[in-house]
């Protein structure tokens, strides 16, 4: 009965690496240390709606075929298309991402990640103002003031607060939660907000106002701040600024409540500027609360292979990047792609209606372990092994620390890495034939 | 069995004392040999300068360069050096390329190879983030690679030094090198990285590190002694305290002096001081800033225990990236630039800030002069490694341009003619008429590296060495570098041939083949009992303070491309 220690959980961007897994008869029978989300991923893979076999849509119905047939059909779609969108790749390994980029380069595609509807604006913010950050252990060991802004780790990253932030105990933070001030800034009183020492409730879409007011105060210009900012009384804003300035070490964790609300990347830009200003008084860093377990990894691999973290257009033979023009939704809303390859993501469930409507019109290749709304509009469906359970590979935690995902059990499914390699080889073969 | 015969080359190989002499070079199965059979492929190198492949011993090409790329997408489109920068579409042989200071991984491999370089050393690997460095290494084609692991603000290091446990310290270094698959010990602003954990810095060699009761001087000497105890192939590699501050030449000389008493355990230097241009500043502020190069060079001329590299400035855009966290914050505030920071738990700090070196700025002009002054005032080229600390002083693709500054007083005068009087008053370069020859250039770009990294098979053309060879379309004796510097720059910008491990990878300045390079790392042997005692200490560190488990910290074998394990036997 093999017991595997220090397994890495492939659910969220926290990438907890202390999971103990017991395997019996190639089944996971016991999971220790995982949170409820991680636990359900480890056990759920036996219960969820796995795609059992490769499929091709014939006369409107998905019909089971072999891997070879599915890959040939997918390669034909790619070779016969002129403007391909490759999207997703955030719940899979860096090795698969690398293969996907090579395929995109080979086919002159646009490749984009789920950051398009998530932390994409954080990347734009970093390009404007930089990214003053730290590894999560710096927060664990030093931070006495922790701010969760527009995020809800109690539900989205359940072990974050105990492993890395609010409740964790470290070298200079041996009292754990008792020695820390926890601030939550949000539009609603989330379960995370309920645990805070200071919950700052702001009006929807007014984050930029509050950040700007805080910057003014931190930089000694409190006189320009009006009596109420973002629905928060000035006295409260002043108090928050004092908390930040008087801290020994501040970390602002920011989520999609900041990146996807009004002002988008300008919010992140302003948070980065606030961090820079705060360092005149104390030590401060910021970390984005990344969702998919390897969305950070996609950004890393894409950046070293192409120079850009997302929305990369290979139509010119070299990488061209202009989010707003070359993002997945930008293309779909313009009805530009004539084929799409979707892997480890579900735009069918998460993209705007207009984008999904165009996706439904064009040939779609799906690579995924699970059936989801995208399967309903896919023409070729290729099931894959689950990284971190059935396949090994690299993933990047939200703080850009990479870890090796373990293979825990055997599988009959091909890995994303193998599928994308086979697909590239088949595309090259067909091109040579042509 | 693959054989190549390079015929009638004009060979410049300082390791053998060969100074531009006509010779044949024989290659079999990737190595240089005495003779080859009649079936060997022949490269006619008549009239061509032939050297060992270039070896960049201090460059930032994997790891935090990715932060540089991430925050500077504009760099991807920059093309100030046509053929060696900007966007290049994929071909049958090559992947797509972008960038100038922070090129993508493929472009790094292709462009170094075009310059005739075949080996690089990434100068800073944070242990916890080492896997990332090796992932990028795997995607850099052609070149052989090695990396230096950061130890200068590491808690375990500082505790062992404070508690006077030199054997455990050595065991920890050995373990850290293995965990990160590193080649040597890098120290950046010793103690400063930890102070930066609280937004502070250390001010010099004897300023205590907050909470750890050690000084930068103790960290330096402690690590140097551990380095020698382990008989590591490279000495400690030091980025001095107070980098980038006027008046810091005094700290630099003080640091160099500290090592007069350290005895190297191998035939190499006891200390390598890096990018000294940034650490050879005189004056007391940016107002009265001036060169400190003559003082540093004067000391180095009288010392024989150290080597150093330049960190030469190239005018135009650059991206600074260093484990010196506080200096990057100061840069960003001073220059109103974007700022990235990435402190690593228990280990070190780092930052990335883009900037622009303008010949119109008297500070930048003096910085440019200081690098050249160091190279020209230090008499022995075997103490000097040529670098731009790419991309801190400027991108490596400008090496050919920088070579012309070293080889031609006339070329320098042309550049200097654009400087303000204030700049000229603060430098000594205009009074220096020394011009390097090809032999000295070969020393600084290949031979010094072979010696200082104890890689006898690299950086020279001896029988038995790796057949890493650069052939330039340039004939010493017929081209006068002091006047015909345009020809020199052109020849070095696109090698006629670059051979990597006996394979032609560049021909007429274009990429011919893209083999995978090797990764060198050092496995230093430590007695089991000492290792076990040290492991107990770090087990506690992992349990209580790290956010990854020890088992997941070690870089796995699968990440090391074509590994070359260098074993050393420590003295305990």
UniProtKB/TrEMBL annotation, chain A:
<dbReference type="GO" id="GO:0018493">
    <property type="term" value="F:formylmethanofuran dehydrogenase activity"/>
</dbReference>
<comment type="pathway">
    <text>One-carbon metabolism; methanogenesis from CO(2); 5,10-methenyl-5,6,7,8-tetrahydromethanopterin from CO(2): step 1/3.</text>
</comment>
<dbReference type="GO" id="GO:0019386">
    <property type="term" value="P:methanogenesis, from carbon dioxide"/>
</dbReference>
<dbReference type="InterPro" id="IPR016457">
    <property type="entry name" value="Formylmethanofuran_DH_bsu"/>
</dbReference>
<dbReference type="InterPro" id="IPR050123">
    <property type="entry name" value="Prok_molybdopt-oxidoreductase"/>
</dbReference>
<dbReference type="GO" id="GO:0022904">
    <property type="term" value="P:respiratory electron transport chain"/>
</dbReference>
<protein>
    <recommendedName>
        <fullName>formylmethanofuran dehydrogenase subunit B</fullName>
        <ecNumber>1.2.7.12</ecNumber>
    </recommendedName>
</protein>
<comment type="similarity">
    <text>Belongs to the FwdB family.</text>
</comment>
<comment type="function">
    <text>Catalyzes the reversible oxidation of CO(2) and methanofuran (MFR) to N-formylmethanofuran (CHO-MFR). This enzyme is oxygen-labile.</text>
</comment>
<dbReference type="Pfam" id="PF00384">
    <property type="entry name" value="Molybdopterin"/>
</dbReference>
<keyword id="KW-0484">Methanogenesis</keyword>
<keyword id="KW-0560">Oxidoreductase</keyword>
<keyword id="KW-0712">Selenocysteine</keyword>
<dbReference type="GO" id="GO:0016020">
    <property type="term" value="C:membrane"/>
</dbReference>
<dbReference type="InterPro" id="IPR006656">
    <property type="entry name" value="Mopterin_OxRdtase"/>
</dbReference>
<feature type="domain" description="Molybdopterin oxidoreductase">
    <location>
        <begin position="50"/>
        <end position="423"/>
    </location>
</feature>
From TrEMBL, chain B:
<dbReference type="InterPro" id="IPR032466">
    <property type="entry name" value="Metal_Hydrolase"/>
</dbReference>
<dbReference type="GO" id="GO:0016810">
    <property type="term" value="F:hydrolase activity, acting on carbon-nitrogen (but not peptide) bonds"/>
</dbReference>
<protein>
    <submittedName>
        <fullName>Formylmethanofuran dehydrogenase subunit A</fullName>
    </submittedName>
</protein>
<dbReference type="Pfam" id="PF07969">
    <property type="entry name" value="Amidohydro_3"/>
</dbReference>
<dbReference type="InterPro" id="IPR050378">
    <property type="entry name" value="Metallo-dep_Hydrolases_sf"/>
</dbReference>
<feature type="domain" description="Amidohydrolase 3">
    <location>
        <begin position="41"/>
        <end position="506"/>
    </location>
</feature>
<dbReference type="InterPro" id="IPR012027">
    <property type="entry name" value="Formylmethanofuran_DH_asu"/>
</dbReference>
<dbReference type="InterPro" id="IPR013108">
    <property type="entry name" value="Amidohydro_3"/>
</dbReference>
<dbReference type="InterPro" id="IPR011059">
    <property type="entry name" value="Metal-dep_hydrolase_composite"/>
</dbReference>
């Amino acid at each position: 009965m093999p017991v595997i220690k220090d397994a890495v959980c492939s659910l969220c961007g926290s990438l907890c690496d202390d999971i103990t897994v017991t395997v019996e008869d190639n089944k996971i029978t016991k999971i220790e240390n995982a949170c409820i989300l991680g636990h359900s991923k480890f056990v759920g893979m036996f219960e969820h709606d796995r795609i059992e076999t490769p499929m091709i849509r014939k006369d409107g119905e998905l019909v089971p075929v072999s891997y070879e047939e599915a890959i040939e059909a997918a390669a034909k779609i790619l070779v016969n298309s002129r403007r391909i969108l490759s999207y997703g790749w955030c719940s899979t390994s860096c090795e698969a991402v690398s293969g996907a980029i090579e395929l995109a380069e080979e086919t002159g595609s646009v490749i984009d990640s789920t950051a398009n509807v998530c932390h994409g604006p954080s990347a734009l913010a970093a390009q404007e103002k930089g990214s003053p950050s730290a590894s999560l252990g710096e927060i664990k060991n030093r931070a006495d003031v922790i701010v969760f802004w527009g995020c809800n780790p109690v539900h989205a990253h359940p072990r974050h607060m105990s492993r890395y932030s609010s409740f964790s105990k470290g070298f200079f933070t041996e009292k754990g939660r008792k020695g820390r001030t926890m601030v939550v800034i949000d539009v609603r009183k989330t379960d995370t907000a309920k645990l805070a020492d200071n919950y700052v409730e702001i009006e929807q879409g007014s984050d930029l106002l509050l950040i700007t007011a805080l910057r003014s105060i931190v930089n000694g210009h409190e006189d320009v701040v009006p009596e109420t900012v973002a629905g928060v009384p000035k006295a409260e804003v002043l108090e928050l600024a004092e908390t930040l300035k008087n801290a020994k070490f501040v970390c602002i964790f920011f989520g999609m409540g900041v990146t996807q609300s009004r002002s988008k990347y300008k919010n992140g830009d302003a948070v980065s500027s606030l961090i820079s200003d705060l360092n005149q008084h104390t030590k401060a860093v910021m970390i984005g609360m990344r969702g998919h377990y390897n969305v950070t990894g996609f950004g890393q691999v894409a950046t070293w292979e192409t120079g850009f973290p997302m929305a990369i257009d290979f139509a010119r033979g070299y990488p061209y990047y202009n989010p707003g023009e070359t993002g997945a939704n930008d293309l779909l809303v313009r009805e530009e792609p004539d084929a799409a390859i979707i892997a480890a993501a579900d735009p069918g469930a998460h993209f705007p209606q207009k984008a999904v409507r165009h996706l439904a019109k064009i040939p779609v290749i799906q690579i995924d372990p699970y059936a989801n709304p995208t399967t309903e509009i896919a023409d070729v469906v290729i099931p894959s092994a689950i990284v971190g359970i059935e396949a090994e590979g690299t993933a990047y935690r939200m703080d850009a620390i990479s870890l090796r995902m373990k293979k825990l059990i055997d599988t009959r499914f091909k890995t994303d890495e193998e599928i994308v390699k086979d697909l590239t080889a088949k595309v090259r073969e067909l091109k040579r034939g042509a | 069995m693959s054989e190549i015969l390079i015929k009638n080359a004009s060979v410049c190989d300082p390791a053998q004392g060969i100074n531009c002499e006509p010779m044949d070079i024989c290659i079999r199965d990737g190595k240089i040999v005495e003779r080859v059979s009649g079936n060997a492929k022949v490269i006619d190198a008549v009239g061509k300068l032939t050297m060992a492949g270039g070896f960049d011993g201090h460059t930032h090409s994997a790891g935090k360069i990715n932060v540089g790329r991430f925050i500077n997408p504009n760099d991807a489109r920059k093309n100030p050096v046509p053929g060696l920068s900007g966007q290049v579409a994929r071909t049958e042989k090559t992947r797509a390329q972008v960038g100038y200071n922070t090129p993508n991984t493929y472009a790094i491999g292709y462009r170094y190879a075009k310059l005739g370089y075949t080996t690089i050393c990434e100068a800073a690997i944070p242990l916890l983030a080492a896997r990332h460095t090796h992932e990028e290494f795997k995607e850099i084609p052609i070149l052989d690679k090695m990396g230096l692991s950061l130890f200068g603000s590491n808690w375990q290091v500082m505790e062992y030094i404070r508690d006077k446990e030199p054997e455990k310290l050595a065991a920890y270094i050995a373990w850290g090198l293995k965990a990160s698959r590193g080649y040597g010990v890098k120290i950046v602003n010793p103690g400063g990285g930890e102070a930066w954990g609280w937004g502070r810095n250390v001010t010099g060699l004897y300023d205590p590190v907050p909470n750890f009761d050690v000084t930068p001087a103790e960290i330096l000497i402690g690590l140097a002694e551990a380095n020698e105890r382990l008989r590591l192939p490279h000495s400690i590699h030091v980025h001095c305290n107070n980098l980038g501050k006027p008046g810091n030449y005094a700290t630099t000389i003080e640091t160099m002096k500290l090592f007069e008493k350290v005895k190297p355990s191998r035939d190499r230097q006891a200390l390598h001081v890096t990018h000294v241009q940034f650490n050879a500043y005189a004056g007391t502020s940016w107002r009265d800033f001036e060169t400190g190069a003559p003082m540093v060079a004067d000391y180095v001329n009288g010392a024989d225990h150290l080597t150093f590299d330049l960190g030469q400035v190239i005018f135009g855009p650059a991206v600074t990236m260093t484990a010196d966290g506080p200096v990057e914050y100061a840069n960003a505030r001073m220059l109103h630039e974007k700022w990235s920071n990435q402190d690593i738990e228990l280990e070190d700090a780092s930052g990335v800030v883009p900037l622009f070196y303008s010949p119109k700025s008297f500070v930048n002009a003096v910085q440019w002069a200081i690098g050249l002054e160091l190279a020209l005032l230090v008499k022995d080229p075997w103490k000097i490694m040529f670098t731009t600390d790419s991309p801190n002083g400027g991108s490596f693709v400008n090496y050919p341009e920088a070579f012309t500054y070293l080889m031609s007083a006339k070329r320098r005068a042309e550049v200097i003619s654009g400087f303000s009087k204030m700049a000229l008053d603060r430098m000594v370069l205009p009074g220096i008429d020394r011009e390097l020859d090809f032999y000295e250039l070969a020393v600084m770009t290949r031979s010094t590296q072979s010696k200082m990294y104890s890689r006898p098979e690299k950086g020279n053309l001896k029988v038995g060495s790796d057949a890493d060879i650069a052939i330039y379309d340039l004939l010493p004796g017929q081209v006068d570098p002091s006047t015909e510097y345009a020809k020199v720059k052109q020849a070095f910008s696109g090698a006629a041939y670059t051979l990597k491990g006996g394979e032609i990878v560049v021909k007429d300045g274009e990429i011919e083949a893209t083999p995978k390079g090797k990764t060198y790392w050092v496995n230093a042997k430590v007695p089991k009992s000492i290792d076990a005692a040290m492991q107990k200490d770090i087990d506690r560190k992992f349990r209580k303070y790290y956010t990854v488990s020890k088992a997941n910290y070690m870089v796995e074998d699968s990440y090391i491309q074509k590994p070359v394990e260098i074993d050393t036997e420590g003295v305990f």
